[in-house]
Amino acid sequence: MLPRDKINALTTRVEAIDQRLLTPLDSETLVKLSKERAELEPVYAAIGELNRAEKEREDLEALKGDPEMGAMAEEEARALDTRIEALGDTVRKLLIPKDAADEKSAILEIRAGTGGDEAAIFAGDLFRMYERYAALHGWKVQILSESEGEMGGYKEIIANVAGKGVFARLRFESGVHRVQRVPATEASGRVHTSAATVAVLPEAEEVDVQIRPEDIRLDTTRASSAGGQHANTTDSGVRILHIPTGIIVTVASRSQHQNRIEAMRMLRSRLYELEREKVDQARAADRRGQVGSGDRSERIRTYNFPQGRVTDHRIELTLYKLPQVMSGEALDEVIEPLITDHQAHLLAAEAAPVL
């Protein structure tokens, strides 16, 4: 059943906004109402389509008894029933409350897990996968911190992925990613299993998280370098400790001023995610089936190179498109089903009674 009360309330709100936009308004109110109207437009348009389809279906019902038009009306009614069901599903999904973080940019953190050098190499492969995926979506990737592995790849790499809707697309990538393949360092050709962890945090603005100066301790560190005449000559790295939570962030490159900006950005994002997790846990305690933020300690995906397949264990999805996924081209074929599954859980939670 469609939530008619929500549909009616939303329709009334849009009509009220449209009326107000026809009157003289100050610039701040105009911007605020125009933004709200634009956000409501997709669901309002879908509701309009559904209403028109339902009205047409009612008109066809009246024609079913007509000796000349009855057969045609019956056929058109069946087609309309299918369309009305699809439009109803669309409206239900659009009515799901949106996560305030979905439109934000994100902080991407990838760390080598079990598997030694091969795990670091795999962490590098994952970073390149997301880097290519970001390029396909027109997003900008900026490396904030990196620690290279001895045989290549990264022990740890942290990057800012900037663009509209980044977090909404990458949020389900958080977790343990496992790889099964023959490492380049393996002489016997034996398949090894290694892992890397991925964390995706919504980028927090200053208005989202307030950090008091007395709650942080800022230290400068000797910036890491691959070598050369400038290696380890300046204390440009920045390390920030958030005293109340014990969270530590470190950014090390050439510009100390820029490092401070990026370190504060990372700290805000981690504190923002901490608050989000608290809210998720509270919701889960109040309602069964509520979708939380996920346990990152669980294995979420396996990349099997000998068989050329990628398996996401959360939704039991297997694709034999490993090269295309690793190039970022087919990553949406994994992400889209995850988003759909998340929406289905939210719909179920909305419909379930609070116990």
Strand segment tally? 11
Question: Quick one: biggest sheet?
Answer: 8 strands, mixed
- Unreliable spans: 225-233, 286-297
Structural class: alpha+beta
Helix content: 40-55%
User: Overall mean pLDDT score?
Assistant: 83
CATH topology of the largest domain, by name, is Alpha-Beta Plaits
Q: How far from one another are the termini?
A: 21 Å
Shape: flat
What would you say this structure looks like, in words?
This protein is α+β, with helices and mostly antiparallel strands. Helices cover 46% and strands 21% of the residues. It has eight helices and eleven strands. The strands form two sheets. Strands 2-3-1-5-4-9-10-11 form an eight-stranded mixed sheet, with helices on both faces. A three-stranded antiparallel sheet has the order 6-7-8, with helices on one face. A hairpin with a 4-residue loop joins strand 7 and strand 8. The longest helix is centred in the first third of the chain and has 37 residues.
Write the layout of secondary structure elements.
Blueprint: H1 4-21, H2 27-63, H3 70-94, E1 106-112, H4 116-136, E2 140-148, E3 154-162, H5 166-170, E4 175-181, E5 192-202, E6 216-221, E7 237-242, E8 247-251, H6 256-286, E9 299-304, E10 309-312, E11 317-319, H7 322-326, H8 332-351
Feature tags:
355 residues; alpha+beta; Alpha-Beta Plaits; Double Stranded RNA Binding Domain; 8-stranded mixed beta sheet; 8 helices; 46% helix; flat
